[in-house]
Structure to design on (445 residues):
């Protein structure tokens, strides 16, 4: 499938075959750390995909193990299967992106938290709380805060849950994971508040903004919806999105009747806070943003489905099982239909980037080289060049700096066919490929 835009930014930080791309304020160093064992010595996308697929499967398995003793094994297995067969999980699990790993950290962290509360002497659970919090903060510090917010509320407001070791594990884990991000804020962004403000600006300004319809529009396979317009996908593609929280509510009712409310209510509370910023505080949408929300819902949902089958009257049990199986089969068919379309569309766009890179090589733009303009970041990765911008969220140089580089390096400016070339590139040789115009500096020849 090739590497996507964000993936090229993360992989370039540790890959030796291409210069590191500009690392903007919202990003954290967790993904580069995750891919370093492969990307630091190999440029093979296939090898990286296999490594991440195996690692993501192992991560899900370990996260589910954190819930042992809290739910029966069949509930955990069913919940894992539900999460692992969502198209968004299968699509992003083998990608160099942070959201899946926030989801794994959230799922494991809540499970370990409940185990640590149930057994204060469970040292493995305490270590699990800290490690899960660190994983989330390594990947996306702000998401880690939203996910753990209900855990802190419980620790502060409920005296019988107030265990100093659990509080310490949670705080140390978050601090360990976020420390590098905070230090980098002061070194490269002028301070923590400045970095948070920059991150908010890049995301369109965080504030009250209902993005529920935007998220609905992504369920048909749009990996990014910005600006988010167009029609909402067909009913069969979005119905699962509404059924999931309803089944989670059934799972909560089952837990209340069985007098084990905390084990279901807490993951639902963490799922709610994990979803708040991406459903009500951001002006665009991507399906991967809600992966932590889905991961925390699946165990209560699986509990509800198994209860619907096993609690039925014996004569009706086969009917209930058949209905649940039929619903899950239809759900699976929809998920993999969307997945196939999404992969095909993504692969086609990434092939265009590879074609553009090949054409740039043919025109003499080879490393060491410089690219600027439209789609410069991912195409620079494919070309082996350094990407620079003079404006926008990734601005890291000036027009004079690019013009000066063009006198000694191969440089190209990329624009859309309707776009206007930068002033310094208007006399450069122009070529068209894969829907782009390549303005190539004379030095490339």
């Amino acid at each position: 499938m090739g590497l996507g835009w964000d993936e090229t930014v993360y992989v370039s930080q540790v890959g030796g075959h291409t210069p590191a791309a500009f690392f903007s304020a919202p990003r954290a160093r967790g993904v580069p750390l995750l891919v370093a064992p492969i990307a630091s010595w190999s440029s093979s996308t296939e090898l990286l995909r296999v490594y991440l697929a195996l690692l993501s499967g192992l991560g899900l398995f370990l996260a589910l193990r954190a819930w042992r003793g809290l739910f029966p094994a069949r509930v955990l297995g069913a919940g894992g299967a539900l999460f692992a067969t969502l198209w968004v999980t299968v699509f992003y699990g083998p990608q160099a992106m942070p959201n899946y790993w926030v989801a794994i950290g959230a799922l494991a962290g809540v499970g370990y938290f409940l185990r640590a509360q149930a057994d204060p002497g469970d040292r493995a659970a305490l270590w699990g709380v800290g490690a899960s919090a660190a994983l989330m903060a390594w990947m996306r510090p702000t998401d880690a805060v939203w996910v753990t917010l209900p855990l802190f509320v419980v620790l502060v407001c409920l005296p019988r849950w107030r265990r100093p070791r659990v509080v310490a594990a949670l705080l140390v884990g978050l601090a360990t994971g976020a420390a590098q991000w905070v230090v980098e804020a002061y070194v490269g962004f002028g301070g923590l508040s400045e970095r948070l403000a920059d991150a908010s600006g890049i995301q369109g300004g965080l504030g009250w903004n209902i993005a529920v319809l935007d998220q609905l529009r992504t369920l048909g396979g749009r990996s990014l919806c910005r600006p988010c317009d167009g029609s909402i996908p067909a009913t069969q593609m979005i119905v699962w999105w509404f059924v999931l929280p309803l089944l989670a509510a059934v799972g909560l009712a089952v837990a209340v009747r069985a007098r084990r409310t905390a084990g279901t209510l807490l993951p639902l509370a963490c799922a709610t806070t994990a979803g708040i910023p991406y459903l009500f505080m951001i002006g665009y949408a991507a399906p991967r943003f809600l992966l932590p929300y889905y991961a925390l819902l699946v165990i209560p949902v699986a509990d509800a489905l198994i209860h619907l089958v096993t609690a039925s009257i014996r004569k009706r049990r086969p009917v209930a099982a058949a209905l649940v199986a039929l619903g899950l089969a239809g759900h699976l068919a929809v998920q993999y239909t969307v997945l196939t379309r999404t992969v095909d569309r993504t692969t086609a766009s990434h092939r265009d980037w590879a074609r553009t890179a090949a054409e740039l090589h043919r025109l003499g733009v080879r490393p060491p080289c410089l690219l600027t303009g439209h789609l410069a970041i991912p195409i620079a990765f494919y070309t082996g060049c350094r990407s620079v911008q003079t404006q926008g969220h990734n601005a890291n140089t000036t027009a004079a700096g690019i013009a000066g580089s063009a006198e000694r390096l191969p440089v190209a400016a990329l624009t859309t066919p309707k776009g206007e070339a930068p002033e310094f590139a208007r006399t450069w040789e122009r070529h068209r490929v894969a829907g782009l115009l390549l303005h190539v500096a004379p030095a490339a020849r």
Notes: The radius of gyration is 24 Å. DSSP finds 17 helices and five strands in the chain.
